Amino acid sequence: MLKKLLLAALLVVASMTVVPQISASASGWGAAGGNPQYDNTADGRTPIAHRCSPISSRQFAGDLTGQDGKGVNATIGFNLVNAAGQTIDLGGCVAYGYSAIVQLNHFVGFAGQTMGSVQHNVKGVAEGRVDSRFSVSYLPANATAVWIETYTRAYTGSPCGMNCAGEPDERKYGWTNRRVVPVSTYVHLTAPTTPAYGGTTGNIQARLVNSSGQVTDPAHCGGTRNTNCVQIYTWSTFSPEGHVVEGWGAGDRYGVGQYRFVSLASGVAAGQPYKIRVTFINGNGAAYRQIEAYTKVWRGYTSNLSIHI
């Protein structure tokens, strides 16, 4: 999964998902609106086009900081799931992609910024204080849990929120995730810090090989290509979930059949376990095959493995 494809997916989901109420701190933003009867269009006044479940009073909320305690520039994607484990949107309908998205601290650089300090845009104009809080309220009644994924970013002069969030940036902070968190839970998220900044992240390099052990190079999904291609993700499988800083990543193709995942959370003496999943997408844009492999990540070390596809 290319980072540009991830950003494009965020934009698509944000434009389609019914959003009862999403909020970030004063220094960030959520989808527009705030009224549980309206969606996330620009004015927040468009009636919901569909609903598969009643609205509830439940919410989930939390905060995100760097491992060094600083505020970070990040996009946070939330996947709500129902009792059957299916992803649903904020109307309670089975859907694909993120159910909700929040952007925090858009005007903060890649190295983070002291909590509570003032952010400034490229012209030096104040843009609110650095904060860490977010919430999604009035969840559909059939929502039972949420998956959470973060994308750390850096301010590079873009003037506004989601439509110009910019490229992900993992020089200092890696991406973190949480798996199957019960709704109505307050979640503390921590972006792992790389060794260059005193942290404990590591990396994975994977190559795709055929049954003869020869490197193979199927087309990679990304940019304008989203059919007849492969997507590659990795995420921590540490158990019990939520007891350490957990990471995830999107495979970045850097050579023939070669992929890398950088700035992955480690912080475990025995190495933090990760699953890598290769998903094959057919000509209709649907997944038809998945291959999984497993490895561990240690501080400052790059784990190498071959994935037989």
Helix-strand category: mainly beta
Low-confidence stretches: 1-19, 25-47
Give average pLDDT, whole number: 84
Number of helical runs?
1
Provide the number of structural domains: 2
The total strand number stands at 19
Provide a descriptive summary of the structure in words:
This protein has one helix and 19 strands. It is mostly beta strands. The strands form five sheets. Strands 3, 4, 5, 9 and 10 form a five-stranded antiparallel beta sheet that branches. A four-stranded mixed beta sheet has the order 1-8-2-11, with no helix packed on it. The protein has a four-stranded mixed beta sheet with strand order 15-16-12-19, with no helix packed on it. It is globular and about 55 Å long. Mean pLDDT is 84; it is low at 1-19 and 25-47.
